[in-house]
């Protein structure tokens, strides 16, 4: 009976912790749920229908000219691929801490600014390349969907949530992660990701006044040791 009670208490504590964790970042997990639904739809649709659906929600040059608001919103509700689990990890690592730290409104402002800004920067450069003959004119209809520009912006702004001296390795790793594709294969997606990161870094004024403690790996390690004793 004792083992059963202990197991019940452990399950209850685990459930309570999980519910508290989800409630602490409501927009993040609501968005993640919507992405799960659309990912399931991606698996159910025939390939031709899927290509059409994703194409209609793409933030390419044609759609940005004819219906920008629709595609800028709709593109955020689909993943660039068939797998949802990597997004679960990324949302828990970056989005949830950022929303808890900044608050839902500021988190959304940073992410949406990065999403919209990086989209227009990358597609604007693509338009210039097409105009000057450096890119295929058919790329006016290129498929460009997903949440990665929003995510890159959040990765950038989270720099200010990391305590020194850990902030500098985090910043260096972030810049390297997005700069390498830009140097090795400077396509519109790489330009968009790097632009979104810089937009997130430029959002420093929105981080001022946040009272939550900065993330410090040394403090976290000590906390885990105390809990283990």
Automatic annotation (TrEMBL):
Top-level taxon of origin: Bacteria
Transmembrane segments: 27-47, 68-96, 108-130, 142-163
Alphabetized InterPro entries for the sequence: Rhomboid_2
Entry keywords, A to Z: Membrane, Transmembrane, Transmembrane helix
UniProt keyword Glycoprotein present: no
The protein, known as: Rhomboid-like protein
Native source organism of the sequence: Nocardia rhamnosiphila
